[in-house]
Amino acid sequence: MPPRQWKLWSLPPTALGYVIAVDAVALVITVLAVRASVIGGPITSAEWTAFAVLAVASTLHLESARGIERRREMAANTSPHTNLKCLWFFASLLLLPLSLVIPLVVLSYLYSWFRVFGRTIAHRKIFSNSTCILASAAAAAVLRGGGLLTEPRVPTDFWSLLVVLAAAATWWLVNYALVVGAILISSPEAKAKDALGELSHQLVICAGLGLGIAIAALQSSYPWVVPVLMVTVLALHRDLLLPQYQRAAGVDVKTGLATPSYWANAVPLELARAESLRSSVGLLMLDLDKFKEINDTYGHPAGDRALRAVGESVRAEVRQGDLVARVGGDELAVLLPGASEVEVLEVAERIRDRLSALTVSVETVANRTAIISGVPASFGAAVYPDVAGTMDQLILAADNALLTAKRGGRNQIVSARPNPPVDHQPIDN
């Protein structure tokens, strides 16, 4: 791909400057590390052996987990991408000089680029590579500042353990802060909460760093035990990261909302829970009134951008614990556990007001920027068990209310009414 066609140049100017600055600092650190290695003397054969062992182990790890990682990459959203490469990077940091740690990082990302992620997003992986180099340099500074000057720098007493743990925390914090900063700068509309990701994902990184300490300790004393740990590494990779992929697989790529299949599984479970708790479940179905006009006027990429902005607006107005899904082309659904009819209508009114005032900047088919002002929607509301006793009945009631709203002039909210009780009259013989 010619340099002028790199996706890097499509970033907003501020994000582009940020990415290039981080890459430049990583390059400077690499040059300084090589220069320090030359001045400090040649790399020993033991260090080259440790480098080879870690390089082979990390490559085998990546190849064995390639299927999971490829699926997770395809399903990734606007939050830090969690992986276990850090365990090899931190293990190498405890065993090797920085001039060998950096090649290991580069080798790992090069292999991932060709075998896992594909070559169309090179700037993202170069940036990730750079954040790991910066994090490794910061952690190395902590190790040296704590008095661990020579390799191997594995903990042998309480003080050295504290220093190593401080270095691990520094590695995590620097890498995490750089990635979150890139997400927020490149996506101004992204919320800080979404950019930070889930706490459980960061606990995976902490587990990886801890495992890196164990691998470094074994490599320095019992190197033949390291291959045995590969089974543990792969098991952790599958058990810790596969559930993340499975959750991500339930997310619609264009909107970040739940997929229809995830939605279809969630609704009956929530109804069963409400039945056991003698509670209620609210359902909102909403259909965008002018979505076809957006696609026809500005093009489908602009429509996708508008649809994502709508999804973000809807999520901003629902309660914590509510589920928002994309169930059709321009049709969304909101499941509101425990909500009464009044609460469902209040949420619907907030969403309707927000969408009516929504402005979205899009790129047109003529490569020009256009502003879409207002994306009105029609709403149908239904509440279990007031108007329905099953999932199908609840969805049908909300759909019928939505159809009534669209036929009645659109950009309005219609609530399904409870079915009148059946009057059983005595039958005369």
TrEMBL record:
Q: Which GO terms describe its molecular function?
A: diguanylate cyclase activity
Q: Which residues form the GGDEF domain?
A: 279-418
Per UniProt, which keywords does this protein have? Membrane, Transmembrane, Transmembrane helix
Q: Where are the transmembrane segments?
A: 15-36, 88-114, 126-146, 158-187, 199-218
* Pfam families assigned to the protein according to its UniProt record, in alphabetical order: GGDEF (PF00990)
Q: List the record's Gene Ontology CC terms alphabetically.
A: plasma membrane
GO terms (BP aspect):
cell adhesion involved in single-species biofilm formation; negative regulation of bacterial-type flagellum-dependent cell motility
State if Transmembrane is listed as a keyword.
yes
NCBIfam families in alphabetical order: GGDEF
Q: Can you name this protein?
A: Diguanylate cyclase (GGDEF)-like protein
Q: Which organism is it from?
A: Kribbella italica
